[in-house]
Design brief:
alpha/beta
Length: 330
């Protein structure tokens, strides 16, 4: 398999929330790729557009006020933004699966675990009830759930948070999808269970060969899970780089702030560094680079226009006036 082969390509995506008074640009001209077999991490503070960008892939962000104003989302060369609802249903749960942040709200409390797991197999794989149940038991065993046959008859509310998340992972993998979108899947779990879930996801991903988009605000998780990282802020992509490169040579001031604000293995208890200020609300986004009100290097130019992207030979991408001279931008 060609390691550079692209499975998903998002180009200049614009997902807006529109009402009578204003346009809220939740995702504003976002571009990134996902290669086959890789885990792409997307990191940033709450409200930066991480989840909206990824939920837009399957048009899961739906309401009368949502507008997909521009761009393309090419999954195996086909633009999902142009697909009909019927075409999207063929992708959802089969080619692309989602592990949601809070499994208690994602799982239906009125149906058993077995009923919910078998649904995708019956719809997408056309399996009989008997064969679907056998497949469900197999995948519950893969995610290390004890007594998997009995688990099929239980309801989600009777399970612990860790068990519910394991069920969600099994549901996401059971159709052998080509892409898994994991939307902060360990945020609601304690650190011990979180570590188990991350190890489990890594092991299963290696077995299935699926690509994964891992959305989180936790840089520690990103360092363990991701091959490459996209850093987002204010609905924009600030920086993209291989994980090792990002942690060793972060370029954007926002990325540097995120890295410096986390405790390290030699943390001595002193006050951690912080990024001053707050994330701007969608109805009060600053002009230019959205990070410039909080940036220690901000100039007048930063408040006037969003910087063009600087692309380096190793694929490292950064959008910051600190590095951009018009004649050097590729």
């Amino acid at each position: 398999m060609n390691e550079q082969e692209t499975l998903l390509s998002i180009k200049n995506l614009k997902t807006y929330f529109v009402n009578e008074d204003q346009v809220l640009k939740a995702v504003d001209d976002v571009s990134f790729d996902v290669k086959r077999g890789e885990t792409l991490g997307i990191v940033g503070e709450s409200g930066c557009g991480k989840s909206i960008s990824c939920m837009s892939i399957l048009k899961l962000v739906q309401s009368p006020n949502v507008r997909y104003e521009g761009g393309e989302i090419l999954f195996e060369g086909k633009n999902t933004l142009k697909m009909t609802e019927k075409e999207l249903r063929k992708l959802r749960g089969k080619e692309i699966s989602v592990i949601f942040q809070e499994p208690m709200t994602a799982l239906n409390p009125l149906y058993t675990v077995g009923d919910q797991m078998m649904e995708a197999l019956k719809i997408h794989k056309k399996l009989s009830t008997k064969n679907a149940r056998e497949k469900c038991v197999e995948y519950l065993e893969k995610v290390k759930i004890p007594m998997p046959k009995e688990m099929l008859n239980r309801y989600p509310f009777s399970l612990s948070g860790g068990m519910r998340q394991r069920v969600m992972i099994a549901m996401a993998l059971i159709t052998n999808p080509k892409l898994i979108i994991a939307d902060e899947p360990t945020t609601a779990l304690d650190v011990t269970i979180q570590a188990q879930i991350l190890d489990l996801m890594n092991a299963l991903k290696d077995v299935t060969g699926s690509s994964c988009i891992f959305i989180t605000h936790d840089l520690g998780v990103i360092s363990e899970m991701a091959d490459r990282v996209v850093v987002m802020y204010g609905g924009k992509v600030c920086e993209v780089a291989d994980t090792d490169v990002l942690f060793e040579h972060a370029m954007h001031p926002y990325t540097q702030g995120l890295i410096h604000s986390r405790p390290t293995s030699d943390y001595d208890g002193d006050r951690l560094q912080v990024i001053p200020g707050n994330v701007p609300s969608l109805n009060d986004k600053p002009a230019g680079c959205p990070f410039h009100p909080r940036c220690p290097y901000a100039s007048k130019q930063c408040g006037e226009a969003f910087p063009p992207e600087r692309v380096y030979p190793d694929g490292h991408r950064v959008s910051c006036w600190k590095y951009c001279n018009a004649s050097e931008v590729q």
